[in-house]
Amino acid sequence: MRGFLTLIKICKEKRKMIMSLAFADFRKRFVGSYFGAVWMLIQPLVTIAIYAFIFGPYGFKSSPPVPNVSYTTWLIPGMVPWFFFSEVMNMNTGILQEYQ
To answer: Are residues 98 and 62 in the same domain?
Structure first.
C-alpha cells in the first residue's frame, strides 16, 4: 500500500511532464493520418455499428442477452472497456520495442 501511495505522490509531482509526454505522443500518433484524431472516435463507432448490425435485431442471434434491453445498449458497455484494454496492450508492445 505504501508503494502505491508513493507512486501517486510521484505522479502528482510530475503531472506536467506526464501531460506533456502524453500530448506529444498523441500528436505523433495522429500526424499524417487522413482523419487525424477523429479516427480515434470513428474506428470504435464503426466497429460497434457493425456488431450491432450483424448481431442486432435482424442478425445472427437467437434471443436477447438481457430481456427488455436492446442488443446495442447491452453491447456498448462491454465494448468500451475492451477497446481501452486492447489499445493499451497494443501500445505497450510498441513502447517496449521502441524504447528498449
So the answer is: yes
> What pLDDT digit, counting tens, does each position of 55-93 carry?
877 776 666 678 888 888 888 999 999 999 998 888 887
39-53 per-position pLDDT tens digit: 888 889 999 999 888
End-to-end CA distance of the chain: 29
Contact 59, 87 (CB under 8 A): no
- pTM attached to this predicted model: 0.63
Q: Are residues 46 and 93 in the same domain?
A: yes
Reading the block at residue 52, the C-alpha cell is 450491432
How far apart, in whole angstroms, are the C-alpha atoms of residue 36 and residue 93?
A: 22
Q: Map grid coordinates 477523429 to a residue.
A: 38
Which residue bears the cell 453491447? 75
Quick one: which of 77, 50, 47 has its CA closest to 65? 77
Q: Give the domain extent around 20.
A: 1-31
